[in-house]
Design a protein that fits this description.
Blueprint (H helix, E strand, L loop, with lengths): L3 H4 L3 H23 L8 H48 L5 H13 L3 H28 L1
Helix pairs in contact: 2-3, 3-4
Length: 139
């Protein structure tokens, strides 16, 4: 099965598809307006050949770009983990601090994970504030 995100077109795909279709229509109807009898050839060639080729190139570009981004994300995570290990080994961090920082680092490995982690921390912070306010009101 594929994810719903895989079925969606990216913004770049939508842009390229729109531009290519506009050019196909512009050339086709331009040739019609000029009285060329072979104007109709533009439509099958454009929609069956040029448009799929352009979209394939966009997908190749995005997949290569995505691979580069994931490699850099992995490198950054490894660098951060190595820094934490070095600080723990030199005694700059206590064991509890080290474990908490490693856990936080691994929770925020992707952008989506980071957003989710921040949202949960905010909810926990608001819940803690509410408990403190309730305790304060009782006094």
């Amino acid at each position: 099965m594929t994810d719903a995100a895989d079925d969606e077109d990216s913004a770049l795909e939508e842009l390229v598809a729109g531009v290519v279709m506009a050019l196909i229509f512009l050339v086709g109807f331009g040739l019609l307006a000029l009285g060329e009898w072979w104007f109709w050839i533009v439509f099958p060639v454009g929609f069956a050949g040029v448009l799929p080729a352009a979209l394939a190139l966009v997908r190749i570009y995005e997949s290569r770009r995505g691979d580069d981004a994931s490699e850099s994300m992995t490198t950054e995570t490894e660098d951060a983990l190595e820094t934490l290990r070095r600080r723990y080994a030199t005694g700059e961090l206590a064991e509890e601090e080290f474990e908490a920082k490693v856990e936080r680092l691994l929770e925020t490995e992707t952008v989506a994970d980071a957003r989710e982690s921040m949202a949960s921390r905010r909810r926990e912070g608001k819940a803690g504030e509410t408990e403190r306010e309730t305790a304060f009101d009782r006094d």
